[in-house]
Design a protein that fits this description.
100 residues; alpha+beta; 5-stranded antiparallel β-sheet; 35% strand; elongated
Length: 100
């Protein structure tokens, strides 16, 4: 189910970027430590919160050998074409940040 809608916020400076919510994820692996695990993109903070809450609800009571954890949802400006991809999906993952 797709939750939310694209923002009407205008990019500062007259750019054509579109505001979406970016969440940076970190992977934790016992014995190896932590490393960046990519970014998820959501239409708005409500959609990001819903995804994170559902993800965390599915975690076991004790930390598994390897798991990912979300950072703080942040509004970023992205290319309009990428924003359309976000609009058409519940979540979009990327190994690198798509923010401008």
């Amino acid at each position: 189910m797709i939750v939310g809608k694209l923002s009407d916020y205008k990019e500062p400076g007259g750019g054509d970027g579109v505001a979406v919510i970016q969440v940076e994820w970190t992977e934790y692996e016992r014995g190896w430590g932590q490393r960046p695990n990519g970014y998820s993109y959501h239409l708005d903070k409500g959609a990001a919160k819903l995804y994170i809450d559902e993800f965390l609800a599915g975690m076991p009571p004790q930390a598994p050998e390897c798991y990912s954890a979300p950072g703080t949802p942040t509004m970023v400006w992205v290319d309009p074409v990428f924003a359309l991809m976000v609009q058409g999906k519940e979540i979009v993952w990327s190994e690198k940040s798509q923010s401008r």
